[in-house]
Design a protein that fits this description.
This protein is an alpha/beta fold. It has helices spanning 41-58, 85-93, 97-114, 130-142, 157-161, 174-179, 225-237, 251-266, 297-302, 314-322, 334-354, 367-379, 384-402, 410-427, 439-457, 461-473, and strands spanning 5-8, 13-16, 24-29, 62-67, 146-149, 152-155, 201-205, 221-223, 241-247, 271-277, 280-282, 285-286, 330-332, 477-481, 484-488. The strands form 5 sheets. Strands 4-3-9-10 form a 4-stranded parallel beta sheet, sandwiched between helices. A 4-stranded antiparallel beta sheet has the order 5-6-7-8. Strands 12-11-13 form a 3-stranded mixed beta sheet. The structure holds one RNA strand.
Length: 489
RNA sequence: GGUCGGAUGGCCGAGAGGCUAGGCACGGGUCUGCAAAACCCUCUACACCGGUUCGAAUCCGGUUCCGACCUCCA
């Protein structure tokens, strides 16, 4: 009944979404590796899939949303032999690896909260599912699709490819993988243990000094990166679930490998739909350490970064992200952010205006049309930019009705308010941002504004301007509206 | 080098064989003691060269540029 059409990376087609179970949707999203503070790139996925989840729930589905925390298992790969990212960062900061993971997990969740991303129903950690991962690796070994080598276990890609299509998801051809790209010798540690360079680690032997290690049938070690998602998605959503999401950069090798692992173990591609969002660029360039253009989320919120002309609020960022389609690249710039900020403000003003519109006998506009258009856009592979365009149409109607240029009856005024509530707040997840001005300050400000209003009424403009000028000098912005003055900092 | 994707008005960004995307900026106007804000209206674009078609920004071929992935990455 959903009507939702979703682009499935696996089939490279837009398909009608139907859940496996009647009204329940299993949704697994690849979460962050928690070894550093969240940056802009970390924000898009949570927001995009939050909107998907909200829309599914709006349609009456019960969603089980699982998003993992990767706190173990990533090889550093640039010369730091066998050391994983968390251990490396721990060494640098002189902390326990779990301390690092905890710090940045908290930071990531705080970012999500400020972005108004609903918390996942389950947030499993890789380090808490070592047993499940070992069991899965054993199953793959027993299936003859993995082999042991010097205390490590590798997935045998060539053996798997005899009966399965390794490379289908990411559009890769195994022969090309074997032949091409190999002009540069891989520096990946343990390469000489592999039967084939494309084999990937399921379990890695740990050196004695390695901090993060667990006992296994193959000795002390730690799991490879890809196996955690296979194990955790299976545990909480079953062998086959509805949607697996993540960034396009995870297509290969991560998701390709997940499919291979799960298939080797259960015989099934674990997800019906593979959904991928595109990446974020800054001023037309990708974010990279070498380009020195990485922006942390905190820096964006505070404006404290060389590339930023000002601070941008979480809702501005969220709105900005949703103004582009999730499968296109999204380019950051001050101009674009400022445009989003102003546009969002306009929407808010109109939504407030809609709450106190004059009621007419008849109606010159049918608000239901806008609602229908929103549904249609959303069903078309989550076309949030079009939904937002519809909201701006609603804003125009709201403002025009307030000016008496368009007549709306009670039914349509109600529908208009509901439209903003449903689409802007519930589905797109855009919430009003109250900076939490403390009431004492507001009390003082109201007093000043009243005194100024009195001065204006007395035509004592010298005094009213003096009050405004002095407040301006202190950083306050005073706006005179039709219904009195307002202030902000 | 291989694979895939993209080039839309000053900026961001949808769409897609004929019909307004939308936002921001610019311009005009309304409101206003002034200012700011707010609101209304306006601006009419699709990289280049061929082709198909009554008609192409949208389809086909070629060219140029850009990006992502191929190694950890959201």
């Amino acid at each position: 009944m959903s009507g939702l059409q979703l682009y499935n990376t696996y089939t490279r087609q837009t398909e009608a979404f139907r859940p496996i179970h009647d009204n329940i949707v299993g949704l697994y999203i690849c979460g962050p590796t928690v070894y550093g503070p969240p940056h802009l790139g970390h924000v898009r996925g949570p927001v995009v899939f939050d909107v998907l989840r909200r829309y599914l729930e709006f349609q009456g589905f019960k969603v089980r949303h699982v998003r993992n925390i990767t706190d173990v298992g990533h090889l550093v790969g640039d010369g730091d032999e066998g050391e994983d990212k968390l251990s490396k960062q721990a060494r640098l900061e002189q902390l326990e690896p779990m301390e690092i993971a905890q710090t940045y997990t908290v930071a990531y969740n705080e970012m999500s909260r400020r972005m108004n991303v609903l918390p996942p129903n389950i947030e499993p950690r890789a380090s808490g599912h070592i047993i499940e991962q070992i069991e899965m690796i054993e199953a793959i070994v027993n299936a003859g699709l993995a082999y042991k080598a010097n205390g490590s276990v590798y997935f045998d890609v060539l053996a798997y490819a005899k009966s399965h299509d390794y490379g289908k998801l990411s559009g890769r051809i195994l022969d090309d993988l074997i032949a091409g790209a190999g002009n540069e010798a891989r520096e990946l540690e343990g390469q000489d243990e592999k039967r084939n360079p494309n084999d990937f680690a399921l379990w890695k032997k740990a050196a004695p000094e390695h901090i993060m290690q667990w006992s296994s049938p193959w000795g002390k070690g730690y799991p490879g990166w890809h196996i955690e998602c296979s194990a955790m998605s299976r545990k909480y959503l079953g062998d086959v679930f509805d949607i697996h999401g993540g960034g396009m950069d995870l297509l290969f090798p991560h998701h390709e490998s997940e499919i291979a692992q799960s298939t080797a173990c259960t015989g099934h591609n674990p997800a019906r739909f593979w959904v991928h969002h595109n990446m974020i660029t800054i001023n037309g360039q990708k974010m990279a350490k070498s380009l020195n253009n990485g922006i942390q989320v905190e820096e964006l919120f505070s404006g404290n970064h060389a590339l930023l002309e000002q601070a941008y609020s979480p809702m501005t960022l969220r709105f900005f992200i949703l103004q582009a389609h999730y499968r296109g690249t999204l380019d950051f710039s001050n101009e674009a952010l400022q445009a989003a900020e102003k546009g969002l403000q306009r929407l808010w003003n109109a939504a407030e205006t809609a709450k106190k519109l004059p009621v007419s006998e008849n109606s010159e506009y049918n608000i239901t049309d806008i609602h229908e258009a929103c549904l249609k856009s959303m069903n078309d592979d989550l076309n949030t930019p079009q939904v937002i365009a519809q909201l701006f149409e609603a804003a125009r109607v709201s403002n025009s009705a307030a000016d008496g240029k368009i007549k709306l009856d009670q039914v349509n005024i109600h529908a208009l308010n509901e439209l903003f509530d449903t689409w802007m707040v519930s589905i797109l997840g855009i919430q009003p941002e109250k900076e939490g001005n403390d009431s004492a300050l507001d009390g003082v400000m109201q007093m000043l504004l009243q005194m100024r209003a009195q001065a204006k009424a007395d035509k004592n403009y010298a005094l009213s301007d003096e009050i405004r000028n002095k407040l301006t000098a202190l950083g306050f912005v005073i706006k005179d509206g039709k219904e009195g003055s307002s202030w902000s900092i």
